[in-house]
Structures are given as C-alpha cells and as structure tokens.
Design a protein that fits this description.
By secondary structure, this protein is an alpha+beta fold. Helix content is 35%, strand content 20%. Belongs to the FAD-binding oxidoreductase/transferase type 4 family.
C-alpha cells in the first residue's frame, strides 16, 4: 500500500492526496452512517485530464475508485469501505459557460446545486431541480443519482434538465454525450444512461444544464388534513385549479420533531396529516382561485385549517416545516426507506404499508413524509436509544424485505430518488427482473471493463 500511495502522490500534488484518519472518515461515507468508512486515500483532482490520469493509474494498480460529490445520498452509494481511493470532485467547481440563446449553464461536476441555482438567477433564469441538501450536494452527484426533490411535480428530475454530460469511463476515455443539442436522433442517448448510474459506469466531470423561466410570484400554503383520502382529494382539486410547483405532505409525528427543533407551528389546529402547496400567482385571479380552492376543501371536510404565507420570511418558515424533517431526525440515526408508487396507488399502498409497520414495528417510531404529487414517500424508522445499531439495521432490513413485497403488489420502486448503493442492493431483484439486472451488469462491463468504478454498488459484478 505504501508503494501504491507513493505512485498516487506522483500523480497529484501531495496536498491533494489525503490520508489523515479524519479525512478518510469524512470523505469515505455519505449520510447513511451505517457503513464504516475505510478508504485508502482521498484524491482531489482539478481537471478532466487529472481524472483521466487517476482512472488509468487505478487500472494499472488494480485499485477501485469511489466518486464523491456532496455525499448527501442516503443509500451508501458514496461509501468507501474496502481500501478504495475516493475521487472527490470538490475542487472541480467552476462554472464554465453560459449560453443565453440556448439558456444553458455548463459546469464542472463539483459545482454545488445552490451555486448553480444562484448563477441561473443572476442571468434572470431558473434551475428548478431543488431539495433540502441544495447547499451541499453537487451537480455530478445529482446526475449520478438522477436526483428529484420537491419540484418534480412541475419540473421533473435532473435527467430532464441534462442537455449534455462529459464522462470519464473506466478505461480513462472521455465521452461527450449529446453536446447540449435539443434534437439528436443519432442512436442511443448515452447522456441519459449516465443519469442514475451511481458512478458505476463513469466519472461525471462536466455537465450542461438547461434553464427555464423563473416561477411567477410563488405562493405557499400549509393545511391540516384529517385523513389520507382527504389528502388525495385535496391534491386532485389543487392540481386542477392552480399551477402547482410543489405538493408535499408530512405527518403529525414529523411535524412534532421539527417543532422540537425550533420550527414554528403554523396554526393551532392539529391533524394526523399536513400538506404544503406551492403554486405560481401570476395574477389576482390565481390568488382568488387558491382561496376558493381552500374554501371548497374546507366545505368538503378535506381541510381542517390552513395558512397562506404573507411574506418571503413566512414562506421560508412554512417550507422549513417540510424541509427541516431530515435534520430534526438525524440524531436518532434513522433507517430510511425512499419508495415510490404511481400517484393513483398512494392511498392503497399506504394502507398496506401502515398495516405492515403496525405489525412489524410495534416498538419503533416510524416517521413518514414525502412528495405526494409524484408518489414518492420517505420513511424514517427511528432507532430506540437502548438498541445496538447492528441489531437495529438487521431488524429494519428484515422489514424492508416485506415492504418490497408490498411495493411489488402496487407496482412500486424501493428507490425513488436516492439510488440503490449498498443499502438497497439486497432488494434490487424485487423490483428489477433477472434479465434487467444482467443487462445492467453487461453495460457496466462495457464502460468499466476492469471493474474499478464504485464496485459493489447497485449490484455485485
């Protein structure tokens, strides 16, 4: 290993090859916190050429590489626990080009999501893919997991805004996929193949992202809902009457944790469910339609109470009730499920899911919330303080296997927006057929013939 490290330090300046235990722990894991990090080193390239050199070095030395962005994933996709070299993109953080005609920004993979959003705003435009980790997640990681977030109902996933991507394959070759074209009917669209590939096919080094017009006067409401059927009725009503940009929900348990961590209660009424609606208000008629929709929902018994933001500050406070959930649960080291079903199947799936959890988790607190407008639910099982972590993970893994059976019945997915990584790998065959998994393995062998890129993630080669 000392010879391997010495050769790595000949490749990059010594200050960009990290081996201190604190650095290895920091860069060797993501937000799952369930896997002990044990990388050999951390490499910090600053150019595409250096990434190419790292890949070729890894092939020669037979060393695995784990790509690293903001490490905000929740599936263990960025974990290095078997002596790999972590390739952190944090120094590749330049905005390379803005094209006002095509309305695109070309950036390096290490650009923070919020930095891209701000750069778009400075040009009078909008990058709409958004989530709570916007301040630390990186564009390369967003693409590698095809990140979704809180605006999918209106704007779709990262893949939908990816105009072009530059990737270094497992042989050190550079691929420039699509080159920002709107129309390109020249065979397989490799650009979209890398979206969601979790770093197993290539290292994303640059991306060209499409921008759009900013939302017009976004408004936020939070409402209390008596039951899940009412929530779906309210969703159908608001979607029909308003230009929605987000439709999020959370339970009373989730709200209680946020309030305990400094959140502000939106109103005095209490309910088992709450919904946050964001919509554009381009004119007075839309504002009136929103009030009329709330009144109709209240008359029908779908809505118990509600509040409309009266300022940007209050809008941020209302959004915190939803976006602050993950942070408020962090100290409990939750086991997370990130699942999806078709929107029309949400009520039936939730009924089966709740019955499963009531039976199998009688002594665990389960907090769930999510993007009801796109059928994505986040489930956090909280570890009892007296329970050992390994026992907790084992028990949650057992129940997750049962959850997969419920998802199968409802045509759902075990991973909606955080990828498969290590955490969900044991359950991949409950969602994908053997033929699909074998095709994925074959694709990996084409792009990564030496098996050095993020091995063990998604599936075992």
């Amino acid at each position: 290993m000392s010879d391997v490290l010495a050769s790595l330090r000949h490749l990059l300046p010594s200050e960009r090859v990290l081996t201190e235990p604190s650095d290895l722990e920091h860069y060797g894991r993501d937000w799952t916190r369930q896997y002990p990090p044990a990388p050999l080193a951390v490499a910090l390239p600053e150019s595409v050429e250096e990434v190419q050199a790292l890949v070729r070095w890894a092939v020669e030395q037979n060393v695995a590489l784990v790509p690293s962005g903001g490490r905000t994933g929740l599936s263990g996709g960025a974990v290095a626990m078997h002596g790999e070299v972590v390739v952190s993109m944090q120094r590749m953080h330049r905005i390379l080009d803005f094209d006002p005609i095509d309305r695109t920004l070309t950036v390096e993979a290490g650009v923070i999501t919020e930095t891209l959003q701000q750069a778009a705003r400075e040009k009078g435009l909008y990058y709409p893919v958004d989530f709570g980790s916007r301040g630390s997640s990186q564009i390369g990681g967003n693409i590698a997991t095809n990140a979704g977030g809180i605006k999918v109902i209106r704007y779709g996933l990262t893949r939908d805004w990816l105009a072009g991507v530059k990737v270094v394959t497992g042989t050190g070759e550079v691929l420039e996929c699509n080159r920002g074209l709107v129309k390109n009917a020249t065979g397989y669209d490799l650009r979209h193949l890398f979206a969601g590939s979790e770093g197993t096919l290539g290292l994303i080094v640059e991306a060209t992202m499409r921008l759009t017009d900013p939302p017009r006067a976004p408004q936020v409401m939070v409402m209390a809902v008596p039951d899940m059927d009412s929530l779906m009725q309210a969703f159908a009503m608001f979607r029909a009457r308003l230009p929605l940009t987000a439709f999020e929900f959370f339970t009373d348990k989730a709200l209680a944790h946020v309030l305990a961590h400094g959140g502000k209660r939106p109103f005095d009424s209490e309910a088992p469910y709450y919904v946050l609606v964001e919509y554009e208000t381009p004119d007075e008629a839309t504002s009136e339609a929103a009030l009329a929709a709330f009144e109709h929902g209240a008359e029908q018994g779908w809505l118990i109470d509600g509040v409309m933001a009266q300022s940007e500050t209050q809008a941020a406070e209302l959004w915190h009730l939803r976006e602050g959930i993950t942070e408020s649960l962090a100290s409990r080291t939750p086991y997370k499920n990130d699942v999806s079903v078709r929107v029309s199947r949400v009520p039936a799936f939730l009924a089966d899911m709740q019955a499963l959890f009531a039976r199998e988790y009688p002594d665990f607190e389960v907090v769930w919330y999510g993007h009801i407008g796109d059928g994505n639910l986040h489930i956090s099982v909280l570890r009892p303080e007296a329970m050992a972590m390994q026992d907790f993970v084992t028990e949650c893994g057992r129940v997750t296997g049962m959850l997969c059976e419920v998802l199968q019945r409802h045509g759902g997915s075990i991973s909606a927006e955080h990828g498969v990584g290590l955490l969900k790998k044991p359950y991949l065959d409950t969602i994908r057929t053997p033929a699909e998994i074998e095709l994925m393995r074959q694709m990996k062998r084409v792009f990564d013939p030496h098996g050095i890129l993020n091995p063990g993630k998604l599936f075992d080669s």
